Amino acid sequence: MEPVHVAVGVVLDASNRVLITRRAAASHQGGLWEFPGGKVEAGESLRLALARELREELGIEIGRTSELLEVRHDYGDKRVLLDVHVVWDFRGEARGLEDQPLEWVAPQALTQYSFPAANVPIIGAINTLLNEAGSRPG
After folding, report:
1. Taking the model in full, what pTM does it have?
2. Which end of the chain is less crowded, N or C, counting CB atoms within 10 A of the terminal residue's CB?
3. The pLDDT of residue 26
């Protein structure tokens, strides 16, 4: 089974809060919170996939990004490869264009939300990144 390649954005606001969205109930891992993003299409670069997905899902245009980590996870019925990037800058106001709820959350509060198993390493990486920097890395 080939993994589904997913571009994931850890979108930060000026206060280093993280944007999370809730998965539709009928989707795989439905009802859980996640970091926004979506499938990388054939022949599409990771950067273009991330920009497209965040524009389609949230109505934002991404600016500066940086790699955070790569996560491989096997759910049994589905394998995923998450290419996770921090979105440091964006234009527009994030809103749920697919009627998905969204919240801006302090990094240390992310553990209070239920995420798919593949997203759990992302939470640790976010907290490590922001705690090591002491403030917003530039």
Report:
1. 0.92
2. C
3. 76
